[in-house]
Target: DUF5673 domain-containing protein
Amino acid sequence: MYILFRFFLLFCSKDFIHFYLDLRKKGVVNPQVLSSAAFYAFLYMGIFFAACFFLYYRMMESHLQYDWTFRGWLIFVCLIIFGFCFVWIKSLEEALYAYSDGIVVVGRLISKKWSKKGFSLKYQFDADGEQLFLTKDRQSYFKAKKVSVGHELPIIYAKSSPRHAKFYNPDNFSKYCLDTTKEPPKIKVPERKYVL
Model:
């Protein structure tokens, strides 16, 4: 699984790579979390390659193999699939980094806006004296109705790179924490009335 995780690291930020290499040098990397992350990264990229192969195979067996318009659409569809897979991989990196090098703070809802895709909830939190924001998009009307401006929610962010932040869920700690020496954060978590 280490080779698959190295493949996953190709898509990660330098900060996370350096953090992971420090953990590996200390010998405190959790092999279960490493295997799980490698599997999901491989799965996402496998979806991309399988979709591209399927589309290419269908193009070659059809009479449209010399049609450049069709090839353009094929490339466009492959790029869209790659974009989705890349976003999934970056989300996985964010979760691994935040939970492995994380500090839990309280975030406060500062705005909620309606768009065609649902409510967007914007939370503000302090990271070493710096004001940062975390947004949760596509929330249903019923979830957004239950919270008002000033609502508090726990947020976990990476000490070495505060821009890697996630909404904290204690149940996810064992799924995403790469460091075997790290204990789950002890913080008075505000009551969550709904799941984000």
